[in-house]
Structure formats: structure tokens, C-alpha cells
């Protein structure tokens, strides 16, 4: 009896031990296991309810045993229980929040009801329950004012804000991960560094067919407004990546160039629009009028 640990200490201690074991044995990465796996959270809640139920049963049995004891034995039991834990201030705070009468004073609040020897106590609602009830009323009033009177951001508004933030984050990520570009996400590059890199690729891979100034040779003139397979950035990107028309035209460069290099050389090709080559080849294809063919500036 002297080393008896009260239930308000046993329950959290045992629960924390179980929680620590769960976190130790379940690999959940950087997140706690009960957040990463909802089933773990349900398991822990079930364990907590079981621990509370066990403590409630133990407390009920102790109460029944206490009423069976004679005067001296009863006094000794109460004295030993009183001295079983030394943090008296914490125990007093706990009892105050619980709002229960001491066992020896239960005779003051016992009711006349008697069901097969089971008697009923006229305990008030626990203070913690009353405080929680008042807090819920205050919360409801604040919630009503914020969302139904002052038109605060609702779930749809918050979703749209988070979606906009996510799009911004994706765009910022793309700037540092340009090699993820593809036919669906490619945009016209205008940075001097990108155009310079595209020019290097062009001079290495393309001048044999299109000449150094883009005027055309075996391949078509890249400086006029006529295009065989389209003159916007997506069309040029696809042509460089996949090649020209089946059986003839330019080869596919996707196996030799990285996606960012294809985007850079495509942007450089479009930067040649409106320039004057030394020996321009006759126009081929159709005239392409599009805002995406605006010449990027170096």
C-alpha cells in the first residue's frame, strides 16, 4: 500500500510507455506514427480508453472494499493511501478539478436510493467538465461571429489560398529544377544565360542544316514567319525533341539533349525571328502568327 501510485499518475505513465514503444517499433519517417498512420492513432485512443476503464474499475473496487473495512482498518487504509504519493499539491489540484468529495465525507452526499446495496452519491459535475462546457460555448460564439457575421475565410477560401500558394511553390521549384520541363510545361525562356546556352547547342547541333545565322540550308529558314510544324515554343520544343515529319526532316534530339537544353535551344531558335541572315532560304510552310513567337531579349 505504501508504494501505491495513484491512477492519475499510472494512466499517463503507462500510456506514454506504450506510445514510446509504438514510435520505436513503427517506422514512420519524419512524422510521428500516429500522424502518418491513422490506424495507429485509433489504436492509441483505444488503449487510452482501456486504461481509463481499468482504473475506474480499480477505483470502484477500492471503494467497495473501503466500506467493508472496520473503523481502525479503514483509517489505516486511508492514511496509507494519503501518503502513497508525495506530490500533494498536484494531487490536491487533481482532486479539485475532479470535484469529488473525499471518501470519508461521502456520507454527507449520499442519497436515500438503494439498489441491492448500491447507493448513489449526489456529486456535482466535475469542474473540468463545466469549464470545458463554458469554453465550447465561447468557441461557438467566436466561430459564429467570425464565419457567419464577419465572413471569415471558409474551407473553400482556405483551399483556394493554399492552392495558389502551392502553384507559386511549384513555379519557384521549377526555376531551380528546369530539367523537369516537358511539352506541357515548357515556356519561352528569355534569360540571357538560357539563350546563351541555347545558342551553344544550336551552334553544336543545328548549323549544319540551318546555318549559323538561322537562314537555312538543308533545313528551313528559321528567321521568317513561315513554319512547317508550328512556330510557338511548344511546337518548336516538340519538333526538336521528337523530330520532323515521319520519314523526312529533322531527327529527334531527345536522346542526345536534356529537356532543359531542348527548351533553351527552342527559345534561341525563336529569338532568331526577324533577324536578317546572309543567304536566307525561301519560305517553307505556313505563316505563323502567335504571341508566343515574340522575340526574347538578351
Automatic annotation (TrEMBL):
Q: Where is this region: Disordered?
A: 274-298
Short name of one Pfam family for this protein?
Cytochrome_CBB3
Show the InterPro entries listed in the entry: CcoP_N (IPR032858), CcoP_N_sf (IPR038414), Cyt_c-like_dom (IPR009056), Cyt_c-like_dom_sf (IPR036909), Cytochrome_c_Oxidase_Subunit (IPR050597)
- The answer to whether keyword Transmembrane helix applies is yes
Tell me yes or no: is Glycoprotein among this UniProt entry's keywords: no
Gene3D superfamilies from the xrefs? 6.10.280.130, Cytochrome c-like domain
Molecular function via GO: electron transfer activity; heme binding; metal ion binding
Family matches, as SUPFAM superfamilies: Cytochrome c
Domain of life from the UniProt record:
Bacteria
Domain Cytochrome c stretches: 193-273
What keywords would UniProt list here? Heme, Iron, Membrane, Metal-binding, Transmembrane, Transmembrane helix
Which residues span the membrane?
Answer: 6-26, 38-61, 128-145
Q: What is this protein called?
A: Cytochrome C oxidase subunit III
